[in-house]
Write a structure and sequence with these properties.
17 helices, 20% strand, 3 domains, 495 residues, 2-enoyl-CoA Hydratase, Chain A, domain 1, five-stranded antiparallel beta sheet, Pdz3 Domain, six-stranded mixed beta sheet
Length: 495
């Protein structure tokens, strides 16, 4: 058994041993040589082939070999770090169809870019199917553009062309693109800037108030070092207030004044003192005999499996399992330890939690064998309405999968971004490419969910589908939450 003090010591040593050597002093926009970029590419390729648990789950080896060759050949000239990430590495990672495998620029590059003057497309846009509608403004000088205005093209690129090119750079589980729609809709200016570049002005086509296609030139939103400084006082909250604000962002519990329903908004299973939060929330639900509960996990990207399992215990009507299979190709990051952050700690963890079986894979037997029972104290017996959607991913999908089909539990919204068959995760170390210092998150375990649907590549389907509503976009209200409350009110009137 590993002692706590030994783990702390090992963790400290691993952090020290993984401090990047010979950190490049290149500015974010300066170029790396073709040779440096090719070396980084080969390192990443070797690690993915040897360690990624599901590199060939959705894409055959022959196809992945073709992609590796295609993007390696695409490194023909010197590139900036940003160019390398968005034109080579991100499209390559997308072909694995694993939402837990992602690329991010080095801390140095992000810091330098934040100091620069950068121009962004001035509107936030909601994208669904082949439609884009304005939802918010970064600048105020657009009298002819309103919330809900349909944008048909930007600088000659149609909605379909914009969507496809951006989506090609976003990791996702399987083939379902619902998560990509939501990610781009949350921060369209960011994605457009990285994929299509930055301009001081943009030529747009839009549908005007008469229903006709019109054209306009709109000025970019300019972010400079000076504007960043002006924003600092907004964030200058006391530590205690900041902690409370962060907690409210991560999770909240409210009861309607009629005591007819309560709402839990849960945006992560990673932080927020969730054990205490769940206990207090379900204690109140029982104390006040609240007959209906809305659990909103539309923005929950996952986190700790034990936290999602704990929530399941509070509402599940039956015993349940988390997964049928959890296994890895290897139980060590060696021989690539020098590229992984905290490699020593990762190796210790993998060695002690994963055991080799007859199939030559390393299994995490705890999740494969464990059968969980519902909570006895403060267990919730009322009706449950779970709001879910594209960002519902990873551990939140394990929660949804476990409760789907149970009595008095309804899933509302859109298909989850996390796969219904399973995904890859559990242990997700980061590796740092040697020349550019670009970071790549890579999962180690392939997870096959219990009672999974055999159709691989798609998310968990809701019981009641609530898609994108143009009326809700235009008028700025939450359609999915409104439907949940209407269902509760309608049911209560029957009694």
């Amino acid at each position: 058994m590993i002692t706590r003090s030994f783990l702390i010591f090992a963790f400290s040593i691993s952090l020290y041993s993984c401090i990047p050597k010979n950190i490049s002093k290149k500015h974010a926009h300066q170029k790396f040589s073709t040779k440096e970029l090719q070396q980084d590419f080969v390192v990443l390729k070797n690690i993915l082939e040897k360690k990624h648990p599901s590199i060939y789950w959705y894409t055959s080896k022959d196809s992945m070999d073709l992609y590796f060759n295609q993007y390696y050949q695409g490194i023909k000239n010197d590139m900036s770090e940003k160019e390398f990430v968005w034109t080579i590495l991100s499209p390559l990672i997308n072909k694995i169809h694993c939402g837990h495998t992602s690329v991010s620029m080095s801390k140095r590059a992000e810091k330098n870019i934040n100091k620069d003057t950068t121009h962004y497309f001035p509107f936030h846009l909601k994208i669904w199917n082949d439609t884009m509608a304005v939802t918010a403004f970064l600048t105020k000088d657009h009298p002819y553009i309103h919330r809900g205005t349909i944008i048909k093209s930007i600088d000659g690129f149609t909605t379909s062309e914009i969507k496809n090119k951006i989506f090609d750079c976003i990791p996702q589980d399987g083939y379902e693109q619902i998560a990509s729609y939501l990610r781009v809709s949350f921060d369209f200016p960011y994605y457009y800037n990285n994929v299509f570049g930055s301009n001081k002005q943009y030529n747009i086509e839009y549908i005007d108030s008469l229903g006709k296609i019109n054209r306009a030139i709109v000025n970019a939103f300019c972010v400079s070092n000076d504007s960043a400084k002006k924003e600092q006082p907004i964030n200058a909250l006391k530590d205690k207030s900041k902690r409370k604000a962060n907690l409210r962002l991560n999770r909240s519990f409210t009861m309607d004044s009629t005591l007819e329903y309560a709402t839990i908004i849960l945006n992560t299973f990673s932080t927020g003192n969730l054990r205490h939060f769940f206990r207090q929330s379900f204690k109140k639900l029982n104390k006040y005999h609240i007959p209906n509960l809305i659990i909103d996990i539309r923005l929950n990207g996952g986190g700790r499996v034990n936290a999602s399992t704990l929530l399941t215990k509070y509402i599940s009507r039956i015993n349940f399992k988390v997964a049928d299979s959890v296994y890895a190709q290897s139980n060590t990051v060696r021989p690539f330890s020098k590229y992984f952050k905290s490699s020593l700690l990762n190796n210790i963890e993998l060695k002690f939690i994963a055991k080799k079986k007859n199939d030559n894979y390393y299994h995490l037997s705890l999740f494969e064998k464990k059968i969980y029972q519902p909570k006895k104290k403060y267990h919730y017996e009322g009706k449950v309405f779970v709001l879910m959607g594209g960002p519902t991913f990873s551990a939140s999908c394990l929660f949804v999968n476990a409760i789907k089909g149970q009595k008095d539990i309804s899933l509302l919204g859109e298909q989850t971004g996390g796969g219904s068959y399973g995904n890859s995760g559990i242990v997700i170390p980061s590796l740092i490419l040697p020349n550019t210092k670009i970071a790549v998150r890579m999962p180690f375990f392939k997870v096959i969910q219990h009672s999974h649907i055999n159709e691989k590549g798609f998310g968990i389907v809701p019981d009641v589908y609530i898609g994108t509503s143009y009326e809700a976009i235009k008028n700025g209200y939450d359609k999915k939450m409104s439907v949940a409350k209407e269902m509760i009110i309608s049911e209560s009137k029957k009694h």
